Amino acid sequence: MRSPRDERPRLSFSFFRWRETIAIPAAPLQIGDLVIDPPILQAPMAGFTNAAFRQIVRQFGGSGLLATEMVNARGFVWLDENEAEHPDRLWGVAEEARPLAVQIWDNDAETMAKVGRRLVDEYRVSVVDINFGCPVRQVTEKAHSGSYLLREPQRMFHIIHRLVKACNPTPVTAKIRLGCSPESINCNEIAKVVEEAGAAALTVHGRTAKDMFRGNADWERISEIKQHLRNIPLIGNGDLDSAEKVVAAFQNYNVDGVMIARACLGRPWLFSQAAAALKGDPVPPEPTLAEQRDVMLHHFRLVVDRFGEEKATVLMRKYACCYAQGKRGARHFRTHVARVSTAAEFHQVVDEHFPSEPIFSNSAAS
């Protein structure tokens, strides 16, 4: 059932100029008792998917489940024990519309269980997701968490099982990669472990940890995992940067849902495009560059409201680069926006250097 908070206004720009597409039925995704419709999820991304970004995605619509940045469970406990403010990555969660997932990471089952229960009791989250896919060295080699744990299936089982018990009845899900390296792909084995431990859904990024984000996601490998799951849904992730690719994922691969990640960072309207394509509705084309600029400035105002001008300006540099990506003059804009330190400087750089010519291919704009 939708709550009053879900009934928020959608951003309405003139770029909703329709074009025809073909209906591709995609059933709603069920995670425990939670129905995700459309079955298109926004990926948790550290440093990016904060409350301001999520608000913009919600205003455009099209994502059935949004997620926070990943939260360090051990760091959360430390802040709590020292009576410090809870992590910035939980900014907005308590008041935000649902459904909403919070992703956490660590390698200690009891720490994870403690944080998971807090998220359920105090933040009333819809889903608690476990990160077993992060390939960043600080998380893997230094903290022995994220994708590092793919080499320890029984430890993963214990973490998931303990968290499921602690969070009941809120569903617990897991996100993994294909394996630690191309030579040690074990996603089929891990999928069985995830389900047996009690997780309500499995998301798979179609690369190994060693691959980082190089090469192409292997959707054939993702699809093969489905036969190793008995009851829980499989969500595919990797390289989904257009409505057409989302439709193709459902057409060609045995997945129950899809997760959009990096491609949405400068294009939060991508979810609405993908959702329209799945329903067979006309797909909204890309906003004009002037409209994209307006979305970016709206995003900046939301960040300023939370963090103040100085911190918000620094945080907004990386988002601004995302909004410019794929456009002629993106490199020139990045060079200037990377140096701004005040709101006035940010607005000046946007006025003078944000791309104003038609969009070209990413390779031409890099």
Write the layout of secondary structure elements.
Blueprint: E1 29-31, E2 34-36, E3 40-42, H1 51-60, E4 66-67, E5 71-72, H2 73-81, E6 100-105, H3 109-121, E7 127-132, H4 137-140, H5 153-167, E8 172-177, H6 187-196, E9 201-205, H7 219-225, E10 234-237, H8 243-252, E11 257-260, H9 270-279, H10 289-307, H11 309-324, H12 330-337, H13 343-353, H14 362-365
Parallel strand pairs: 3-11, 4-6, 5-6, 6-7, 7-8, 8-9, 9-10, 10-11
Antiparallel strand pairs: 1-2
Helix pairs in contact: 2-3, 3-5, 5-6, 8-9, 10-11, 11-12, 12-13
Summary, kept brief:
This protein has 366 residues and is of the alpha/beta class.
Number of strands: 11
Largest sheet: 9 strands, parallel
User: What structural class do you assign from the helix and strand content?
Assistant: alpha/beta
Give start-end ranges of low-pLDDT stretches.
Answer: 1-21, 360-366
**CATH arch. level architecture of the largest domain:** Alpha-Beta Barrel
Number of domains: 2
N- to C-terminal distance: 44 Å
Radius of gyration equals 20 Å
Mind telling me the CATH class of the largest domain?
Alpha Beta
Mean pLDDT comes to 89
> Beta fraction of the residues?
5-15%
CATH superfamily of the largest domain: Aldolase class I
Number of helices: 14
Shape, principal axes of CA atoms: globular
The CATH topology of the largest domain is TIM Barrel
Q: H/E series, N to C?
A: EEEHEEHEHEHHEHEHEHEHHHHHH
Cofactor: FMN
GO molecular function: flavin adenine dinucleotide binding; tRNA binding; tRNA dihydrouridine synthase activity
EC number: 1.3.1.-
Protein name: tRNA-dihydrouridine synthase
